[in-house]
Amino acid sequence: MEPSEAAPRILLVGEEFAWLPEGAILAGRNVVHTTNKEDAAALLALESFDGLIAGLPEIDGNLSLLDIAWRTQPAPACGLRANAAKVAHLVLPHPIIPATQSIDVLDDLVRTMFATARWNADPAFVCLKAQVRKIPALSTLYTQITAVLQKEHSSLQDLADLIACEPAVSVRILQAVNSAAFVLRQPVTSIRDASNFLGVQRLHAIVLSTSLMSQCDVSRCRLFIPEIFEKRSLQIANWSARIAIGETRDRRLGELAFTAGLLHQFGALLLAANLPESYSEVLRLAASQNVSVASAERQTYGVTQAELAAFLLASWNIPFAIVNAVGFHAQPSSSEEDTFSPLTAVHLATAIDNQIATGVGDFDRAYLGRLHLLPRLDHWTRTLTEGA
Questions:
Q1: pLDDT of 73-115, one tens digit each?
Q2: d(C-alpha 14, C-alpha 6), whole Å
Q3: Within 13 Å, how many C-alpha atoms sit on residue 176's CB side?
Q4: 290 φψ region: left (φ > 0), alpha (ψ -120 to 50), beta (else)
Q5: Which helix (H) or strand (E) holds 31?
Q6: 131 touches 274 (CB < 8 A)
Q7: CA dihedral of 235, 299, 334, 381, whole degrees rounded to 10
Q8: Which has the closest alpha carbon to 293: 233, 216, 370, 367?
Q9: Quick one: which of 245, 261, 263 has its CA closest to 253?
């Protein structure tokens, strides 16, 4: 029997997915659920699926099922539902899907799974990823703040007290909040005041960005200037938030856009630390040809730093909206996004920034046209460049 030409579908295997309602949709795909390996294998042999999550109790059964998927389906996106600690000793080519009974959380995880599968299907990305061996870890402070935020009665004061115990991070936060990226009437001199000004989500984002920067030694990449990197990251973060809130009036979306904007060039840190000579040549090429750094990265590596950054953020279970915005901001048409999101805001902010720097905006007009945003380009270019 030939595979069916039905709408895109994802196969979920295991009893623990039984909570999903009939007719559930994840990442725009219809969900098909079965509880055992035999039924799943039969479906894979006869029908077409975009992806599969194996959630059987036995790890060997899951790995066998994932192998069947790869032999019967055209490049499926696969995930393994398992306890990360129990499979830590295994080298797995598939992401680990944490347990959840929230359809919104599972949708987020599945979208991340499909994005990372797309990047891993690109030989240029796989080649570049293999060269990056010095990888930072999430700092203890960041994970502590994440834990505090998950508590029902957490406060800004709780966060400020945690951060105040880390002098180096405190200094970087005060430098950031007093920079030109934020227009303040008077200097902020305490972490408590910085916390009140920034708010929970932006403070959380700056702690993450600061901890990642502190772990990447970029001193051997002669054309990489950390001060310029930090300044531009904060500018793009603020611009992204302004665009998001201005277009949607959604403050939560604005906070996600701020975080994505702040992290959008994290991959450049990785490349400057791991491939200092090569990445210095990328920066030289961008300057000599008067093109965006993303264009120079594609010429050199066949892929950009953005995909690299997003892939690592995904491995830390950073929310998909941020992963998506970081990974696709240079080419949003390559994403599956079809509504205004943090990706849209970061793309506009970075393209406008590049237009200021080089005279070439690198706008993805096909993507912006789908979202009916082309008439807004002049408005946002004028609005953002007035203070640039």
A1: 998 999 999 877 777 677 777 888 989 999 999 999 999 999 9
A2: 23
A3: 30
A4: left
A5: strand 29-34
A6: yes
A7: 30
A8: 233
A9: 245
Tokens read off for 116: 């990372």
Q: What are phi and psi of 10, to 5 degrees?
A: -125, 135
Tokens of 91: 């080298």
Q: Among all chains, which residue has been given the structure tokens 């945690």?
A: 162
Tell whether pTM > 0.85.
Answer: yes
- Specify the DSSP element, H or E, that contains 80: strand 77-80
326: which 2 tokens?
């970081």
Query: Half-sphere exposure of 13 toward its Cβ, with a 13 Å CA cutoff?
Result: 30
Alpha-helix residue ranges (DSSP H) falling in 216-275 = 226-248, 251-263, 266-274
Residue 213, C-beta contacts closer than 8 angstroms, at least 6 positions apart: 172, 226, 229, 230, 269
| Tens-digit pLDDT string for the chain (388 aa) | 344 455 799 999 999 999 999 899 999 999 999 999 999 999 999 999 999 999 999 888 999 999 999 999 998 999 999 877 777 677 777 888 989 999 999 999 999 999 999 999 999 999 999 999 999 998 888 988 888 888 877 788 888 888 988 888 898 889 888 887 787 778 888 888 988 888 888 999 999 999 999 999 999 999 999 999 999 999 999 999 999 999 999 999 999 999 999 999 999 999 999 999 999 999 999 999 999 999 999 999 999 999 999 999 998 889 999 999 999 999 999 999 989 999 999 999 999 999 988 888 889 999 999 999 999 999 999 999 875 5
> Do residues 341 and 359 touch, judged by C-beta distance below 8 A?
no
Alpha carbon of residue 61 to chain centroid: 31
CA 251/CA 264 separation, integer angstroms:
19
Three-state SS at 48: coil
Please state, in angstroms and rounded to a whole number, the distance separating the CA atoms of residues 383 and 377.
Answer: 10
In whole angstroms, what is the distance from residue 332 CA to residue 346 CA? 10
Q: State how far the Cα of 24 lies from the Cα of 40, in Å rounded to an integer.
A: 18
CA distance linking residue 258 with residue 122, whole number of Å: 28
Q: How far apart are CA 221 and CA 225, in angstroms?
A: 8
AA identity, residue 96: I
